[in-house]
Amino acid sequence: MTLLSIVVPVRNEESRLPGTLRGLTEALAGITRSAEIVVVDNASTDRSVDIVRAHQLGAIPIRLVHCAQLGKGAAVRAGVLQSDSPYVGFCDADLATDMAALEPTLTQLGAGVNVVVGSRAHPSSIVKARHSLVRQAGAWVFRQVANGFVPGVGDTQCGYKFFDRRTADAVFRPLRTFGFAFDVELLARAQRIGAVIFELPVCWRDVPGSTFHPVRDGYRSFSALARMRSVLAEPDHPAAVPEARPVTTPIAEVA
Q1: Which of 78, 88, 188, 194 makes the best surface tag, with the fewest CB within 10 Å?
Q2: CA 189 to CA 1: how far, in whole Å?
Q3: Domain residues for 145?
Q4: What tens digit of pLDDT does each residue of 210-233 get?
């Protein structure tokens, strides 16, 4: 049985993917071989899918899943719900969060923590950021608003979060925020069911080439926050979105 699934949402990441897959494989192989990498293609138009298929099968199996519903939240949700491991989480394709965080993450989950959140706000974190002043200001305002939904969590937006299976199913199935603000809804739902959330110090560096556009995606993220109270007030039945389509041909056979 696979102990851990790591979901990587991908949209036009052909330049990063070779390094991403190598980095994750090496990090996982040094901790546990009972793991898998689930790459979720979010309607890429470049060679991202071909690169995943051509990646040589190593110590850690790689699965490819297609998600036609656009949005980072939709892609992560699809990958999480396609897995059945006791522990599941996600990281960004740029590996901005150092994967040395995986070992303490598994330790915390094994000790009974329900959600492990990579936190750049933790006083022990090492953060190397190169964002513009405009983006930094926008991020500060976003954190203040997000704190109204997830009080006590210093960093809702770090792209590194892991869950036990029961909690993952409880927060991802009813998820209705499919853009970059989806983390806030996830954590709000986790707090609502009494999940134990642990903020983990991380080494994080800003990596050039982010798909987040400060104006376009910033506007959408704040709009999502404006709708979030009504979203969270809805019944917790699974959101009506298209399910992900797993690739049926094993990666090893098309390499």
Answers
A1: 194
A2: 28
A3: 4-254
A4: 665 554 555 577 677 878 888 888
